[in-house]
């Protein structure tokens, strides 16, 4: 059994989706961050509004089952294939095995009620997770009372998702930082008793010898999406920023007396008509992001978009938004 522990503070949603192997492109298309193999979603608004966000991950691998020894490609005999048609029918890879074990991910979102204690809260959380240690391990139970005391000055949301290990929270009690750390510490033992297939192993078609012959004969080139993930993660961060901006405008519409105009020259006026107009413009920019994702089936377009992405930065847009009164 191979066990990997990881805990770290994160500031962007793209760091979370990378950690959890969630598709950034799918998250943009659907408008929400869905956890793979589950109906659960990540509350991205809560994530954006929090002062601190941390991720705890435990990956347990019991064994890898592969079928690469006797793999061959059965070429279709009754259809004329092109690169585009091949990817439409077969995709760019195939399942060549499975990883059996378990995965646990916990997202801790903390909003400090007293901002002056933000550093103290961060230090306490870091100590609880022992993130400064080379080999991560849960802090001793004696520290639970001290961390709970510090957390009294903060609003804490803990979202936990896992596969393998059976039911690690049989009582269904609300997750806390302490209970997450404790569950993470015993997760490998739980997985040893109750493993499951956590991930499929994907292999490219051009690793199969007889496919290479077939591809050369029909001029089929398997697309490479190596550079797409980084680009889509950047787009996801933009999408999340735009979503936060839209929520801010929506809140301002119903609470005009709680906001004042930005100091920027082109600041948005504090009236419903102006706010509705700006919200519509923001949603148009979000729709552009979805369109870009749809067109990335051709990975060569990443280079063009990196150089000519006609979408205004949401951070620049935010400088024009109304400012909430303290």
Structural descriptors:
two-stranded antiparallel ribbon, single chain, 326 residues, five-stranded antiparallel beta sheet, 12 helices
Summarize the structure in words:
The chain has 326 residues and is of the alpha+beta class. The chain has 2 domains: 2-71 and 97-198, no CATH class; 228-324. Helix content is 43%, strand content 22%. It is built from 12 helices and 9 strands. It has helices at 13-20, 24-30, 44-49, 83-90, 118-129, 144-150, 177-193, 209-218, 228-254, 272-295, 301-308, 314-318, and strands spanning 2-10, 33-34, 41-42, 52-66, 93-112, 154-163, 196-204, 259-260, 323-324. The strands form 3 sheets. Strands 1, 4, 5, 6 and 7 form a 5-stranded antiparallel β-sheet that branches. β2 and β3 (41-42) form a beta hairpin. α1 (13-20) packs across α9. It is flat, with a radius of gyration of 24 Å. The N and C termini lie far apart (52 Å). 25% of the residues are buried. The model is unreliable at 131-136 (pLDDT under 50).
**Alpha-beta classification:** alpha+beta
Low-confidence regions: 131-136
> Quick one: how many beta strands?
9
Tell me the count of domains.
2
What is this structure, in a nutshell?
The chain is of the alpha+beta class.
Topology:
Blueprint: E1 2-10, H1 13-20, H2 24-30, E2 33-34, E3 41-42, H3 44-49, E4 52-66, H4 83-90, E5 93-112, H5 118-129, H6 144-150, E6 154-163, H7 177-193, E7 196-204, H8 209-218, H9 228-254, E8 259-260, H10 272-295, H11 301-308, H12 314-318, E9 323-324
Antiparallel strand pairs: 1-4, 2-3, 4-5, 5-6, 5-7, 8-9
């Amino acid at each position: 059994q191979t066990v990997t522990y990881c805990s770290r503070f994160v500031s962007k949603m793209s760091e979370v989706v990378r950690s959890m192997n969630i598709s950034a492109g799918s998250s943009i298309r659907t408008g929400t961050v869905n956890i793979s193999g589950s109906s659960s979603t990540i509350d991205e608004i809560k994530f954006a509004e929090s002062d601190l966000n941390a991720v705890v991950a435990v990956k347990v691998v019991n064994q890898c089952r592969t079928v690469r020894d006797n793999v061959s490609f059965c070429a279709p005999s009754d259809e004329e294939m092109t690169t585009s048609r091949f990817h439409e029918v077969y995709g760019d890879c195939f399942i060549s095995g499975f990883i059996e074990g378990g995965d646990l991910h916990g997202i801790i979102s903390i909003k400090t009620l007293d901002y002056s204690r933000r550093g103290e809260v961060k230090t306490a959380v870091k100590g609880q997770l022992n993130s400064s240690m080379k080999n991560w391990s849960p802090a001793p139970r004696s520290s639970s009372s001290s961390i709970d005391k510090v957390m009294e000055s903060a609003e804490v949301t803990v979202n936990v998702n896992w596969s393998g290990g059976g039911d690690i929270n049989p009582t269904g009690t609300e997750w806390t930082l302490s209970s997450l750390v404790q569950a993470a510490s015993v997760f490998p033992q739980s997985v040893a008793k109750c493993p499951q297939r956590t991930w499929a192993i994907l292999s490219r078609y051009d690793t199969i010898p007889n496919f290479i012959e077939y591809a050369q004969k029909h001029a089929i080139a398997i697309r490479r999406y190596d550079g797409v993930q980084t680009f889509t993660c950047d787009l996801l961060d933009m999408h999340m920023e735009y979503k936060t901006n839209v929520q801010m405008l929506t809140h301002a519409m119903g609470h005009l007396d709680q906001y004042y105009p930005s100091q920027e020259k082109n600041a948005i006026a504090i009236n419903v008509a102006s706010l509705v107009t700006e919200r519509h413009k923001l949603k148009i920019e979000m729709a552009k992001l979805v369109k870009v994702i749809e067109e990335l089936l051709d990975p060569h377009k990443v280079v063009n978009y990196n150089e000519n992405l006609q979408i205004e930065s949401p951070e620049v847009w935010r400088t024009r938004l109304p400012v909430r009164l303290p």
